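Below: protein 1.
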Amino acid sequence: MDASQRITALEDVPTDSTVLFRVTDGSDGEREAILVATENGDDGTDGEPEEDRLACWLNYCQHLTHIKIDKGSGAPMRNGELVCANHGAYFDADSGVCTYGPCEGAYLTDLEVTVDDGDVYLTDDDYEYVGAGPVDDDDDLSSSSNVKI
């Protein structure tokens, strides 16, 4: 595996939240992605490959794509689903499908990951790993609304 594409250790992926990191597709700067443990083979003893225990998604809600699911401290989860805290949409952690909310039926954008020797690597042909944590927004504390006046 390419060490520059290592996201984290498998054991450091929480079962009740997400790991936030940055990626690039080489054309439009950095984007955020989230790594989440799924309910497929929770304990790794079912014979499934370790990467089947994980899913990776671009970090934005399908309802309003400027809204982040993980705002920097881990995404909320409930019963194996990611929760968009802005408007309550639920996304299945395994498939990325929105099961409830204004974007019901839409899917999160997936990224490919692989587990090798206990570490998780980004192996998606369209994206490269940049680093851990959120995209630096230059500490812009301004507020904006979804409502145009």
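Below: protein 2.
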Amino acid sequence: MCGIVGYAGARPALGIVLDGLRRLEYRGYDSAGVAVVCEDELLTEKKAGKLANLEKVLSERAADNPEDCAASPIGIGDGTTGIGHTRWATHGGPTDRNAPPHLSPDGRVAVIHNGIIENFAKLRAELEDEGVEFASDTDPSAPRT
């Protein structure tokens, strides 16, 4: 089973979203990811495996770029709007590529959802016939540019 957490407010969102995802760990999942708006930029990080894997990548990201908006003491920025998701694979394997969130081709929209999109194969096939390439193998996968 998966879980979704969102926050929009005055405080940095990432810590709040990660705390919420930790509270959902008992539900079971195979990957996790977050998206945070920071200075009009949508920053994302996602990782297969346990939440600790995601938190490690976020920590490394902060250490690598301490002056960047993408870096702060908590790892992805000080943006005050964010979403997070723990995923249980139903379509596409538990990989970094398939972990949520999925971004629109222009990188301005992040998509997460719970449940199964029943007709995703038909929709995907129609879009692929039109030349659209996808960035993952999941049912909410976003097209690539």
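The mean pLDDT is 81.
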